[in-house]
Amino acid sequence: MSKVFVRVAVDQPMHVLFDYRYTLDTPPSAGMLVQVPFGRREVVGLICEVTSATDLLASKLRDVRALCDGLAPVSETWIALAGFAAEYYQRGLGEVALPALPQALRDPSRWNRLLAIEPRYRLLDAERESLHESLPIRAIALRRLADALVEQPSLALSDARALHPKAAATLDDWSARGWIELAVPDNIPLLPSQATAHAALPVLTDEQRDAVDAITNVQGFAPFLLHGVTGSGKTEVYLHALAALLAAKPDAQALVLVPEINLTPQFEAAFRARFSALAKGSIVTMHSGLAEGERARNWLAAHTGAVRIVLGTRLAILASMPRLAAIVVDEEHDPAYKQQEGLRYSARDLAIYRAKQLDIPVVLGSATPSLESWWQAEQGRYTRLTLARRAIAEAALPSVRLIDLEEERRRGRASVDGLSGPLIAALKSRLERGEQSLVFLNRRGYAPILSCDACGWVAGCPRCSAYAVLHKPERTLRCHHCGWESRIPKSCPDCSNIDIAPMGRGTQRVEETLASVVPGARVLRIDADSTRRKGSAQVLFSDVHAGEVDILVGTQMIAKGHDFRHVTLVGVLNADTALFSHDFRASERLFAQLTQVSGRAGRAGLPGEVMIQTRYPRHALYQALSRQDYVGFANSTLAERRDARLPPFVYQAMLRAEGRTLEAALAFLAEVAAAFASLPGADRVMVYDAVPLTIVKVFNVHRAQLLLESGSRAALQTALRAWQPLLRAQRGVLRWNVEVDPLDV
Ligand code: ADP
Ligand code: ZN
Ligand code: ZN
């Protein structure tokens, strides 16, 4: 018998595959999981290649210990996707592929129990003859297997094994010849269009119809940018387009990505109502909030093809979906699509790659597309679809009013603890009319600063270079960077002055102020503090929907895609700080955030009003916002970026280092920056000076970063790859990481 070797990816920071000798009975194939010895441990790895030769001395190789043969292999295209992500984001293949699997699959002792959902095979009627003719006369076991396939609508792998010892390989062979196929459980693949034909679906607007037609009429790879104002009914476009695509191909699958599932239960509910009323289990969710068992079950259901739709957060982009036929990325501009640790990938960018790889359509939807995507559309690489009007005829876009705080002050019109006169009056009138208001500010806690007037002491975190935030209901000072907490001091620790006072305001303080300036209003605060317990956000939001709240105050948590029916006023506080950030993307983010939160007003027919308190009412960003002019804002910001040679006109990567001292971190960066210069491709890459991060110390660790930039993505990639061994060889820092296409610079 000829020798068999396998090349295996394991979850290690190494860019190589490891060779093992394979002596088990079941033939291996690429995409299967194995248990292998690695150093002194046993780990689970992914077979990427099966070969009869190895460059290494075969006798030195160790043996594969076990094969997870109940699990159908992940596809070659899936391995290629993980390979691309690893390559692009400067990681090892195993570091991408294995963490993308459910935890339970990475534990061999749980394989059997987990794989209770096993693959089933079905004979294609037309191929019955071909199958029988292929069987040698005396091949009794093979005949038994073939007969079972004829007799049963579908045959489970374990039953097949009882009939033939090499059933898995045989079934694979027969699938490859097109005689049999993986069967999808009977109750699941109902066609959405059939069942929903009876339900009362909204009649699409002309704009929605055009968008749906464009998406469903294409063949092959087709990226769409669905630019639809808030309330224009983008969800309905996704639902209709997917229903049509899934109906056209009876076992096709679709992947729908959202930035945050828990904050937008309505979106999930809409999908479930539309697709899963038909058949239990035709849609599953995938996100980090799921219990481990459920995550594994959902992953397997997608992997075996049993579910038609996966609705998930960024991690779902790496779900194994053998018949994936369309991808939707809702709110594609949202920074949540960028993973900020480990593999620092952009799920949106991988969605484009995956769609191209599979030759399928992908729809990126947003009211405020990222400038990267907008630029692609401007160049004609993505097809732009526009929904310029709200879907509900009576629901106009809200009017935006800028309240000039300087002017208010000059005219001697008092604001009460940060709330201007006009905003308070507007809140009161909404209360009288029984309508809801929403007050948005992006800062939680009571006050960001607690300080002493007499000596200038400011409460800070002992472990971070940051102020400690005052939390009044919890009666603590808290660090928002490391979680440090302490009691609020009664007097100044430096000079004993008892007049220490909070400066600035967060959501807790606004909540308190609102209760006193709008008497009788039922005020509810929603932020990370008020929703700490699992499920509490849902409860609070349902109170808002039930009309039990008059004024909702909160952080960006309240800005996401909620369809609040009775909100007619949105007030925005403290937005100005983002105007002067050193991060060139800050204004893009602010525009998106304010558009998003403004979009909560006036969705159900009553006219909506947005009031933005600012000291810079003439700022171009606010002017564009008050004209609801995303296109103007996007084009002028792109022109600025082009002049300044910033993304998307150049490509960036960031090396971040963490050291026990700032000097250590900076010295590391300086050293590797010097070594960078001699790498291939480096002559086309600009290396900036290493700088400390804005908040340089977090949890006693000092942080610095080095920005790299190039007009050529390929040159940057080549140089980064060549840099890896140098980086790994360096000592002197606690940690470092490379981020490609960083969002925060
Ligand atoms: P977006 O995501 O674009 O902000 P949504 O998808 O939340 O907008 O839709 C806004 C509202 O309009 C929802 O209440 C939705 O049910 C409703 N809607 C969408 N399309 C239609 C339509 N064609 N006719 C009537 N109502 C619609
Ligand atoms: Zn003092
Ligand atoms: Zn801290």
Class per helix and strand makeup? alpha/beta
Q: What name is given to the CATH topology of the largest domain?
A: Rossmann fold
Distance between the termini: 57 Å
**Radius of gyration, CA atoms, in whole angstroms:** 29 Å
Could you say what the CATH architecture of the largest domain is? 3-Layer(aba) Sandwich
Low-confidence stretches: 185-198
Strand content: 15-25%
CATH superfamily of the largest domain: P-loop containing nucleotide triphosphate hydrolases
Hetero compounds: adenosine-5'-diphosphate, zinc ion
Largest sheet: 7 strands, parallel
User: What is the helix content?
Assistant: 25-40%
Q: Looking at the structure, what is the overall shape?
A: globular
- How many structural domains in the coordinates? 5
